[in-house]
Amino acid sequence: MLENCPLILSAIRVNLENPFVILAIGISIVIGMIIFLRINAFLALITAAMVVSLLAPESTDGVNRMQRVAIAFGDSVSGIGIVIALAAIIGKCMMDSGAADRIVRTFLRVLGEKNASFALMGSGFVLAVPVFFDTVFYLLIPLARSLYRSTKRNYLMYVMAIAAGGAITHTLVPPTPGPLSMAANLGVDLGKMIFVGALVAFPAALVGILYSMFANRMMDIPMREVAEHTEPDPLKEDELPSLFVSLCPIVLPVLMITANTLVNSMLKGGVGPQGVLTKISPFTSIIGDANFALLVATAISMIILFKQRNLTLLKLGASVEEALMSGGVIILITAGGGAFGKMLTVAQIGPAIQGMFSTEETKVAGLSFLFLGFGIAALLKIAQGSSTVAMITTSAMLATMNVNSEMLGFDPVYLATAIGAGSLIGSWMNDSGFWIFCKMSGLTEEEALKSWTPLLIVLGCTSLATTVLLTFVWPMS
After folding, report:
1. Residue 72 is part of which domain span?
2. Could you tell me if residue 2 is inside a domain?
3. Angle CA(395)–CA(401)–CA(403) in degrees, nearest 5?
4. What residue ranges are annotated as transmembrane (predicted)?
């Protein structure tokens, strides 16, 4: 028996060096710590990164296994840390200044009460770009309740419309952490991610509205009082900033980033006045940098808050600090996911998975990667509940294969939108968004499972279908 021990140990060592075994161990650690031990996602991801690093081959540059985790964590923070922190400040300032409220009221005024569901969806769609989903839902749910008081009907449709608009851009359009991290992991230009993410999100939101109307007819759910939530008094019209001012923190950075993307694309494709483009390219590369663009938007949002609420500098500083505290947690989780993905790269997960999808038909291989990303993200979402963690982990995992346009047959941005679509699938009791929707709207758990959960499946599947369609219609390069 003892003489067989070396053979047994050798077999165990070989199995632990298998990339798929390492991948399974890493994912098991993430899911197990989050679901069963109720550990914060950052601790789960960084623990998994360290374990994977220990199992992976040693680095050839002399960096030890623990140092490379710290280096990968730092690299991830350098890519997304500033943007997430600034986006948190923008969202907080827009909420406190009344800028977000102005956008919502304008949608309702333009579309009218008969189209209130589209107004609520549009408000959620726009506001969830710089503001986290839970905050958007907190802002808009009083409007849904107010509309029900005046119409005495369609409460579920109003609530689901908010969820449809907020959830879809939260998972597809930067600078929210999930899409931002996917763009960084997959090497996708941020301007392109914003444009294509919004392009994929819009039809999904419209289909979400249609499903909301259907669910509203199938389930007659009245508005109920929510004891834990006291609705704030609505601000007067003269207390709100103008629509132009309110939209500036959202529209301006998008225009700046998109301008840089457009100039670079035209230079690369040899389109347009090349001499002029070459001269302005250094300028657009600065103003179109995501860190700089959001810094400008942050300054504008802080000025709006400062003037609109007549704050002292001390109170303004306190508001910014509160926003940074919430943003800091997201930065840690996102960077932890980046470190985990980098360690999977070291463990040679990419080549191992890539070998499973080798084919002579590039387009077929590319579509296989889309469905793979969608499926992995969906499984992770069902297992641990967080769309952000599912997006970060899946994109980091697929980034190990060094995917590019030649390999896929289309732009990698579509792989990012497929992963984002998958991260919507299977929201239930382990998802904080489920409980926000359920408790804030006054629905029972059963009612939420029959409305919120299918709604997100509809959003995810529509997003995937739109993504697949775009790979044929507009593959880019």
Report:
1. 17-473
2. no
3. 75
4. 20-48, 69-90, 118-143, 155-173, 193-214, 243-263, 283-306, 327-349, 369-392, 413-437, 452-474
